[in-house]
Design goal:
Chain lengths: 308, 360
C-alpha cells in the first residue's frame, strides 16, 4: 500500500495494450478501405496458435510471429474471397470468421495444450534501460511492443502522405468513383484485408508468446471485440488507435494493480470503464454536429460490384 | 394461418416422437454443459475427464454429448433446452451461473434429470445439486502457502464474489495465518472464470506488489505461466493437477475428481433409482484431491500438509474451527466451535485479518 508500483503499472499498461493495438490498427486499415471485418477475434486466436506452434517447433520467436501473421492473413483471405468475389454479407461473414477461427484454432492447438512456451527476451536497449523512471516504463520490453508502435507510425504515414494511402482512402469513401477513376477496388481491399489479418495474427501471437505465455483454447477472450470498438473510438485515426489501446490497456492494468496494492476501490466500475468510455465516445461522436468528425469511411461495409 | 398452426403442431409432435424414440432406446444419453473450453487445463478439463469416465464405465450403454464455452446467462438456457430436446436423459450443468437456467429448463422437461454443479437451488423434483468441498483443499494449500512465502505476502486471484469463492479465500487465509502469523493476503477480483490474459496480468500485478505465493480460483493455467516467467514465485494447480508446471512454480494442487459422482448418478438414472438430492463431498470420499507436493517444499512442511489433509479426511479436524472472528472483529465461531454447512454455503463475509471488502 505504501509504495505503489506506479512504474510497474505503466510498464504493464504497455504490455496489456499491445495485442489490441496490433489488432486495432490492422482493422482500421481494413475499414479505411471500406470493408467491415468483424472476424478480428477469430484471426487473433488463429494468430495465437500459429505463433505459439511455429515458435515452439522452431524455437524462434521471429518465425513464430511470421507464422502468426501468415495464419491471420490466410484466414482473412477466406473472408476476402467470400465478401469481395462471392459478395456475401460482410457482417455475417465476419461473425462466421470468428466462430471458424475459434474452432479451427482449438483443433490445431490440441497437441499444444499444457506445453510451456519459449522465453521471449527484452530488447537490449543498453544504457536506455537504466534511465530512472523512463527505463523501466519504456525501455524494458520485448521487441513486439516497439514493432506495434512502428506499425502504427507506418500506417499513419502511408495513409496520410502516400499515393497508396490516398487511393485506399478514396476506395473506402466511394468505391464507385474510385473504380471509375481506374483504381483496382477489389485488389486494394484484398490487400487491406490481408494486412488486417496479419496484424490481428500478430496481436494474438503476442498473447500466446509474451503476455500469457502459453497456448490455451479461447485465450483471446474477447480482445478482438475490444479492438473493433477501439477503431470506432479512435474515429479511424492511426494515433487515435494508439491512444485508445493504451487507455484501454491502462484501465485493465490499473484495476488489477490497485487491487494488488490493497486500495479500496469499486472494482466493478473500473472493469466496466473501457466499455463505458467506448459508449460515451460513440454517443458524443454520433450526435449531430460532431457527426462529420466521426469520419467513418462512407462506403464502409457496402458490397462493391464493378458491373453495377 | 390454420395451416401454419397445424404445421407447427406437426413439427413439435414429430420432434417429440423423435425425442421419445431416442429415449426409448436402451442407450442412456448424458449431456454436459461446460463454461470453458475442454482445453482450459483446469475446471472444464476435469469435468470432461468425468464425462470420459462415464463412457468408459458403461461402454455401449451410454452416449455422452457436451457443449463447451457456454456463457452463463440467457445463452445457457438455450443450450440446455437444446440438449433436452435432443433426447438427453440426464444433463450436468457445470458452473454456478447455470443455476437459474437449469431450474427453468427442468420445469419444462419433468422426465429429464438435471444436475447442477456448485449451486443450491433445487426448485423441481428432477433437479439435483452437487459440489465439492474445495475449501478443504484450500486449507491444505493455504498452510503450504503460509510456510513457503518469504515476503509474507500471498496472493489470491478470485473470480466472482460468490460464497464458493469467498469460502476458499477464508479457508486459505485462515490456515496460512495459522501456519505463519505474519502472513498478509492480497485478493484480486478478475470477474471472469476464464481469461488467460487477465489472469496472467493479475498474477503479474501481484508479483510487482511483492507477492511470492499465488493461489487462484480461475480456470486457466495462465497464472502458472506468469509465475514461472517471474521467477521466484510459487503457485498451486487449480481444479486440475497442472503438473506440467511442476516442480516449480506449481508446488501442489487441488484436483476435482468428478468421475465417481458422474458414474454413480448416470448409473442411478439407468436403474431408475435417481432422486433429487444435494451432494457436497470433500477430501474424504475423494471428490477433492491434493496433487503431489513437489520437492520444492521442505519435508516437514510437506508432512504437516499431509497430516492436515488426513485430519480433514478423517473428520478429526474441521477446516473452520473457532476461535474465528469476522473481519469487523465480531465473533463468528467461539473456541472449538465448527462452522455449519448453512453458513458455509451462504458465506459472504471475510474473516478477521483480511483487508479490503467483499465486492457486493
Amino acid at each position: 500500500m505504501t509504495d505503489f508500483p506506479i512504474l510497474a503499472l505503466l510498464a504493464g499498461m504497455m504490455v496489456a495494450a499491445t495485442p489490441i493495438l496490433l489488432a486495432g490498427i490492422g482493422e482500421m486499415v481494413v475499414e479505411k478501405a471500406g470493408v467491415l471485418n468483424l472476424g478480428v477475434e477469430g484471426m487473433m486466436i488463429i494468430g495465437a496458435i500459429c505463433g505459439f506452434a511455429v515458435a515452439y517447433e522452431t524455437q524462434s520467436v521471429t518465425l513464430g510471429y511470421i507464422g502468426a501473421a501468415l495464419g491471420g492473413a490466410m484466414l482473412a483471405m477466406v473472408f476476402g474471397v467470400l465478401t469481395q468475389f462471392l459478395m456475401t454479407n460482410q457482417v455475417a461473414t465476419g461473425l462466421a470468421l470468428t466462430l471458424t477461427g475459434l474452432g479451427f484454432a482449438a483443433l490445431i492447438g490440441q497437441p499444444y495444450i499444457g506445453i510451456k512456451g519459449i522465453t521471449v527476451g527484452d530488447v537490449p536497449l543498453g544504457p536506455l534501460r537504466d534511465l530512472p523512471v523512463l527505463g523501466p516504463v519504456l525501455f524494458q520490453h520485448d521487441a513486439m511492443v516497439y514493432v506495434a508502435i512502428f506499425i502504427v507510425a507506418c500506417v499513419w504515414y502511408v495513409l496520410r502522405y502516400t499515393r497508396t494511402g490516398l487511393v485506399l482512402r478514396a476506395i473506402g469513401e466511394n468505391h464507385h468513383a474510385a473504380h471509375a477513376l481506374g483504381y483496382k477496388v477489389i485488389a486494394t481491399r484484398l490487400t487491406a484485408i490481408a494486412f488486417g489479418g496479419a496484424c490481428a495474427g500478430l496481436g494474438g501471437a503476442y498473447l500466446s508468446l509474451v503476455r500469457v505465455p502459453q497456448w490455451t483454447e479461447g485465450m483471446t477472450a474477447g480482445a478482438g471485440w475490444i479492438a473493433l470498438a477501439l477503431v470506432v473510438f479512435a474515429s479511424w485515426r492511426a494515433w487515435g488507435v494508439l491512444v485508445g489501446a493504451y487507455l484501454f490497456g491502462g484501465l485493465t492494468a490499473l484495476q488489477l494493480f490497485l487491487q494488488a496494492a490493497g486500495a479500496a476501490i469499486p472494482i466493478e466500475y473500473l472493469s466496466m470503464a473501457p466499455y463505458i468510455i467506448t459508449i460515451v465516445v460513440l454517443v458524443i461522436m454520433s450526435s449531430g454536429r460532431a457527426r462529420a468528425s466521426l469520419s467513418a469511411p462512407a462506403s464502409l461495409g457496402q458490397p462493391f460490384n464493378a458491373s453495377t | 394461418m390454420k395451416k401454419r398452426t397445424f404445421l407447427t403442431a406437426a413439427t413439435v409432435a414429430l420432434g417429440l416422437a423423435l425425442g421419445g424414440a431416442a429415449a426409448a432406446q436402451d442407450k442412456t444419453k448424458v449431456g454436459f454443459v461446460y463454461v470453458g473450453p475442454i482445453g482450459d487445463g483446469g475446471w472444464t478439463y476435469e469435468h470432461d475427464i468425468g464425462r470420459k469416465a462415464v463412457e468408459e464405465a458403461y461402454g455401449d450403454k451410454v452416449e455422452t454429448i457436451y457443449q463447451e464455452s457456454v456463457p452463463e446467462g440467457a445463452d445457457a438456457e438455450r443450450v440446455i433446452t437444446q440438449m433436452a430436446l435432443s433426447g438427453a436423459d440426464i444433463i450436468f450443468t457445470t458452473s454456478f451461473g447455470y443455476m437459474d437456467p437449469t431450474n427453468a429448463v427442468a420445469a419444462k422437461f419433468p422426465n429429464i434429470k438435471f444436475e447442477h454443479a456448485t449451486g443450491y437451488k433445487r426448485e423441481h423434483p428432477n433437479v439435483s445439486t452437487y459440489g465439492a468441498r474445495f475449501y478443504e483443499g484450500r486449507a491444505v494449500i493455504g498452510h503450504i502457502a503460509g510456510k513457503m512465502t518469504k515476503t509474507n505476502k500471498i496472493g489470491y486471484i478470485a473470480s466472482f464474489p460468490i460464497p464458493e469463492v469467498i469460502r476458499g479465500i477464508n479457508a486459505a487465509y485462515l490456515h496460512a495465518k495459522r501456519a505463519n502469523p505474519d502472513v498478509e493476503m492480497t485478493v484480486i477480483w478478475v470477474y471472469t472464470w476464464f481469461d488467460p490474459a487477465k489472469e496472467a496480468d493479475a498474477a503479474q500485478a501481484m508479483v510487482d506488489a511483492g507477492v511470492d505465493v499465488i493461489m487462484q480460483h480461475t480456470d486457466s493455467t495462465a497464472p502458472q505461466a506468469a509465475a514461472e516467467k517471474a521467477g521466484n514465485v510459487y503457485t498451486f494447480g487449480q481444479a486440475s493437477d497442472m503438473a506440467e508446471f511442476g516442480p516449480k512454480p506449481r508446488i501442489s494442487s487441488i484436483i476435482d475428481n468428478w468421475a465417481p459422482y458422474y458414474i454413480a448418478r448416470v448409473g442411478a438414472v439407468m436403474d431408475g433409482t435417481w432422486e433429487s438430492k444435494d451432494t457436497w463431498d470433500g477430501i474424504a470420499p475423494g471428490m477433492v484431491e491434493i496433487g503431489e507436493i513437489t520437492d520444492e517444499v521442505p519435508a516437514d512442511v510437506k508432512a504437516e500438509a499431509m497430516a492436515l489433509r488426513d485430519a480433514i479426511a478423517s473428520g478429526e479436524t474441521h477446516v473452520f474451527t473457532g476461535p474465528i472472528n469476522k473481519q469487523d472483529g465480531s465473533v463468528w465461531l467461539a473456541e472449538g466451535e465448527t462452522a455449519d454447512d448453512g453458513t458455509l454455503l451462504g458465506m459472504n463475509f471475510y474473516i478477521e485479518g483480511l483487508t479490503g471488502d467483499v465486492p457486493q
